[in-house]
Amino acid sequence: MEKKFLRNLILIAGLAAIVTSCFNMGSDMDLLEQTKQQEQLILKNYLDSLEAYNHDIDTTDLDVYYITIEEGEGDFPTEGDTLVIGYRGTYVNGFLFDSSEIYYPDGWEFVLGSPPNIPGFDNGVKHVREGGKIQFIVPSELAYGTTGHGNVGPNQTLVFVVKLLELKQSE
Question: What is the number of other CB atoms lying within 10 angstroms of the CB of residue 21?
Fold first, then answer.
């Protein structure tokens, strides 16, 4: 009788945990909502950790941080060029929010400087040559700002790793 009681108690506790977790389903977005001060501290710590591993961090004219992973060859892209890229977008903590592997397995083709890209993305991708690979870090003011967008919360620094598969220069 005692074994049956204990088994039922464990079963009820497990069901209670499942039901309770259903009520907290929106809490993941709450974790993404942060203040500008929190973002700045997280960004500073992230950049410090990259420097601690001897990564050479450069900065674009718009203050997008970037690290060249593979040099590539040829010219850098300019506005109006058509690019085919493979990319991965994460938060600073490594959580994946977007990837070309999901939506564009053969690479995403777009015209540089045409909407709907965020300004920091276009600015960062200008620093990789065809065949090259780059990681760039986009502060929220060059991404989705204080409002966020979709599954990106407010004041979120975004990290992209981009491989430029093909560069079709405009004429």
Answer: 10
